[in-house]
Target: Methionine ABC transporter ATP-binding protein
Amino acid sequence: MVIDVTDLEFAWRPDAPTVLSIDSFQVASGECLFIKGPSGSGKSTLLSLLSGVTTAAVGSVRVMGQELGQLGSVQRDHFRADHIGYIFQMFNLIPYLSVVDNVILPCRFSSHRRSKALTRSGALEAEARRLLQHLDMDHPDLHRRAVTTLSVGQQQRVAAARALMGSPELLIADEPTSSLDADRRESFIRLLFDECRGVGATLIFVSHDASLEHMFDHTIDLSEINRATCKLEEG
Ligand SMILES: Nc1ncnc2c1ncn2[C@@H]1O[C@H](COP(=O)(O)OP(=O)(O)OP(=O)(O)O)[C@@H](O)[C@H]1O
Model:
């Protein structure tokens, strides 16, 4: 199992309502999982817990066998940098870096990912260019451009290449296609699948957009496994 969550209870503050109450949630290695759920059902909160941005006082969140609650915040930052590629909804590219330097960035924070990238392509820049090419960004002129001059679809591909750099075992994508039209959304997801399957990575893709669901191995509706949402709906 890449992810094993049991008996989780989470509130953002001790006096705030419970946002997540999940008895059991597992994701197998190599799976491409689609997580859907209405706005406010706790999707982003779950991703914060899976990536160790925050931790739960009650229950267990294991990622690749590591109990995240047992790590301090600096150790969790290292764990995330080494093992998790994250594609943000707004991409979070660094505006003053070139395309290639944005893609290389995870290797500045993780020697683990740096050595994997070097093993694969011999040089970080070569690995960044290989990923960009696979993601349909194959024009060398594009690689030198400032990210602020790229289209939304191009920025999305740069964000994906950055998340894939150094072959993290787990890729998390938080609504990264919401600003694209339907055709471009599907082609982007196919490219992500190709890259993930190529290295045996696990993909967790979160979206409101149920029309993407058919593309994935499995789907989870968070509001169905989250007892906190059920209680809110009943109340
Ligand atoms: N950093 C935070 N601090 C405090 N409360 C938060 C924080 N992030 C989310 N929440 C609260 O947790 C609940 C679940 O929000 P969350 O963002 O996880 O839902 P979501 O399913 O991702 O929603 P959306 O689809 O609209 O992004 C909401 O009540 C929200 O206000």
